[in-house]
Amino acid sequence: MIRKQTPRKRRSQKTRARIREARVERLSVYRTPRHIYAQIFDASGERVVTSASTVEPEVRKSLKNGGNVDAAKLVGARIAEKAKAAGVERVAFDRAGFKYHGRIKALADAAREKGLQF
After folding, report:
1. 82 touches 70 (CB < 8 A)
2. pLDDT grade, residue 92 (50/70/90)?
3. Residues 6+ apart with CB under 8 A from 105
4. If DSSP codes are grouped into helix, strand and coil, which group holds residue 46?
5. pLDDT band at 2 (very low <50, low <70, confident <90, very high)
6. pLDDT for the residue numbered 66
7. Residue 26: helix, strand or coil by DSSP?
8. Cα 117 from Cα 33, distance rounded (Å)
């Protein structure tokens, strides 16, 4: 029996292997129906530099629903601001096997608009 997550996990492993070879910081995105999460890992992949999500109290105050495109845009802008404060300007985008549309695309576009390069 093939579960829905199995092909997504396979795709994510290929992407992460390429990013690991490049030795750059990685912006990893994970989404659920109710929330979206973003983390930036250092070049070794062992330490989280910064993170942002719709479960943070500051973000929840300004959102009615954490599982829509508006929430993804807010998280993308927030992760870019936190990354710049931590001294990270350039990252590799890891969409964790999710298709690049909807909330994933909105988060990426918002992060680019705030100055994060990938």
Report:
1. no
2. very high
3. none
4. coil
5. confident
6. 92
7. strand
8. 27
pLDDT, tens digit, for every residue of 19-59? 999 999 999 999 999 999 999 999 998 999 999 999 999 99
Calculate ∠ Cα 104-25-27, nearest 5°.
15
> Any idea what the Cα angle at residue 99 is, between residues 92 and 29, rounded to 5°?
45
Residue 4 confidence (pLDDT): 78
Say if CB 104 and CB 98 are below 8 A apart.
yes
Which domains are assigned to the chain? 5-113 (3.30.420.100)
Contact between residue 97 and residue 15 where contact means Cβ atoms under 8 Å apart = yes
